[in-house]
Write a structure and sequence with these properties.
- The chain is mostly helical.
- It has one domain.
- The chain has 4 helices and no strands.
- The chain is flat and about 40 Å long.
């Protein structure tokens, strides 16, 4: 189980690096940059729409809002930009 958690943590770190590179790329549409920025900011911000102390709902908003924002943003970004950023992070 510890190995699985390490694997997940590594993937999250890699994805955040990819998103950071995508945000800096000039070919990324402005709206996609805003959505990714909001998603990343929401993850690291102590402010939540639904406070975490409310059982289940507090964590559920993080699991719904962030992935939806990321998916919408990634659909707006050219695939070549995302692939290029993934390659840069992998090397």
């Amino acid at each position: 189980m510890l190995e699985r958690l390490r694997f997940i943590a590594k993937n999250i770190q890699r994805e955040l690096k990819v998103y950071r590179l995508v945000l800096k790329d000039k070919r990324t549409p402005f709206v996609a940059k805003v959505l990714l920025g909001i998603a990343i900011g929401y993850v690291i911000s102590p402010i939540d729409i639904i406070p975490d102390f409310i059982p289940v709902l507090g964590q559920l908003d993080d699991l719904i809002i962030v992935p939806i924002l990321i998916l919408i943003a990634l659909k707006m970004i050219p695939k070549s930009v995302v692939e290029e950023c993934k390659t840069r992070v992998s090397s």
